[in-house]
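hi! just following up on the protien thing from before. the input was this:
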Amino acid sequence: MDSKADTPTVVLVHGAWADGSSWQRVIPLLQAEGLSVVAVQNPTNSLADDVAATRRALDAVAGPVVLAGHSWGGAVITEAGAHDKVKALIYVAAFAPKAGETLGALVGAYPAPPALGRISDDGNGYLKISEQGWIEDVANDLPEAEARVLAAVQPPLAASTFGDTATIAAWESLPCWYLVSAEDRVVNVDLERQFAAQMNAKTTELKAGHLSLLSQPEAVAAAILEAVETVKAG
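and the predicted 3d structure came back as:
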């Protein structure tokens, strides 16, 4: 790697029903290349709260940033990426709304993926996905035992997030990479392709389920490393 001052820090933003440990298999691959990595821990209470938490992480980093988001985390980096330190965006099976769009409307514009039928409300406005949903839909290309653990540790997602409106689209002014999960059962695959096309992203399709960052971490790390090298090259 070149001088640390010129090398971006990689900031990683997790999706819904997850936390920063979603990136546990990608992080060592990036660190092995000498990169500094920060995994944000977002509350998943609202888009505004998650954007604020991500911006705090960005503020604490010295120098340029390559910002990556998985799933719901894509909506977060779409807003939080409008930050002077952010030089590139990577979307991993992630939402990339335009300003004025909501996730609920975007999801509703396509046939519902199977995982949406496995969601239940706790009666207080927070959502979880059933264990069977994790096994068959969310973590469909991971071992069943791992899927059960992910189901057990999932944090709840505020149902209101589906109505939160994006106010800015950072992807309109930054170089972008998009990793489509061709076997996704959480986000409609054609919706992922739409996002990649609208941002003119460098796009890779993986034969993977929604959690490619756990099932194919090498491919995800490779896209991030390519973004890092692109930023370093100016």
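The chain has nine helices and nine strands.
The two ends are 15 Å apart (CA to CA).
cheers
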